Amino acid sequence: MRLRRGGAVDRSSPQEPTVNGTEPTQTHRLTEEMLKWSPWALLPLSFSIFTAGGLWVVYYIAVSDGTIAPLGSPYRGNGSLYAPYISIAGNNPPASCVFSEVMNLSAFLGFLIAVVRYLQLKHRIQVWLNVVTLVGFSLVCFGLTLVGNFQLFHQTIIHNIGTFTTFVLGTLFCWVQSCITLRVNMNNEGKIVGVARFLLSAVITVCMVVYMTLMSQRLHVQAAQWQWALVMSFLTFFGTFAIEFRHSSFEAVCIELCVQPVSVSEPPTEIPMHQHEG
Fold first, then answer.
1. What is the mean pLDDT of the segment spanning 32-51?
2. Across residues 16-41, what is the average pLDDT?
C-alpha cells in the first residue's frame, strides 16, 4: 500500500516481484506456471504426439516402397498402388513392423490414460459411469492391438473387428467425456474445455460418417483422406486430457505385512477361545 500525491491512499495491488531487477514478462509467468504442472500432463501429449508421428512414419515408408498412393493423389495411379488407408500402409514389411510397434505402445499409453482418468473422476461422478468409461476406452486400446498385430490382407476379419471397436467405441467415449467435462467443471475450466471437446467430437463424428460414405461409393483415395483426418482428430481429443491431468497427482502406497515366523523348537502358543452362549 503506497501513498499517492496529496496524501491519498493507493489501494492497488502491490507490484509483482521483479526478475533480475526487471518486471516479470508474460513468458516468465507462463514458465513458472508450467513448472507447477503435474508430470501426468505429459501422458496424453506423449500418446498423441507419439501415435501421430509413428503413423506418419508408416505412411512415408509405404509411399517410398510403392505400396500406396500419396494422400494428395486424385486417382489411384496406374492401378498397382493401393489407396492410402492407414491399415494398408501398415500391411507389408517393413512398414508393418513399425505399425505393430506403434499400435502396441499406443494401446499401452491409452490404457494408462483411461486408468488415470478413472482415478481422477472416482469421487466426482457415479461409479457405474466411471467404470463404463474405463472399460469402454480399455476396449478401444484392445482394438488398437488387433489393428496393429493382425494385418488387413492376412487376417481381415480380426483386423476389421479391431477397427470397428476403435472407431465406434472411441467416438462414443469422446461424446461421453465431453458431457462429463461440462458436468464436473474441474478447476472451473470445464466450460471452455467441454465446448472444445464437443466441437472435436462433432468433427470426429462427421469424419467417420463421410469416411464410411465414401468407402461405400468406392471413392477410396478420398475415403483414406477422411480416415487420416478422423484419426488425427481422435489424437487431438485425447491430447486435451493434459489440461486436467496437469492438476492431478497420485501416490502409490505399498504396505509390507510381516508375520513373525514361528520356530519349530518352540511350542505353539495357545489361543484362548471365547464362546458366546445365546
1. 83
2. 62
Instruction: Please spell the DSSP secondary structure of 141-161, one letter per residue.
Output: HHHHHHHHHS-TTTSHHHHHH
Enter the C-alpha cell of residue 70. 500419396
Question: Lowest mean pLDDT: which of 173-182, 218-227, 264-273?
Answer: 264-273
Largest CA distance in the chain: 94
- Helix extents (H) in the chain: 26-35, 42-64, 86-89, 95-120, 127-149, 156-164, 170-184, 190-216, 220-239, 242-245
Residue 73: its pLDDT value, please?
77
What are the backbone dihedrals phi and psi of residue 198, each rounded to the nearest 5 degrees, phi first? -60, -40
Q: Exposed/middle/buried for 137, CB within 10 Å: 0-12, 13-18, 19+?
A: buried
Task: Please list the residues that pair with 224 across neighbouring strands.
Answer: none
Question: Is pLDDT larger for residue 57 or for residue 255?
Answer: 57
Check if the beta carbon of residue 169 is closer than 8 Å to that of residue 138: no
- Phi-psi label, residue 20: left if phi above 0, alpha if psi -120 to 50, beta otherwise: left
Q: What is the pLDDT of residue 213?
A: 96
Distance from C-alpha of 116 to C-alpha of 139, rounded to nearest angstrom: 16
CB 114 within 8 A of CB 137: yes
Nearest to 75 by CA among 221, 227, 215, 224: 221
| Distance from C-alpha of 106 to C-alpha of 170, rounded to nearest angstrom | 14
Query: What type of residue is 165?
Result: T
Q: What is the DSSP letter of 1?
A: -
Cβ(236)–Cβ(230) below 8 Å: no
Map residue 22 onto helix, strand or coil. strand
Distance in angstroms (rounded) separating the CA atoms of residues 173 and 160: 19
Rounded to an integer, what distance in angstroms lies between the CA atom of residue 137 and that of residue 130? Answer: 11
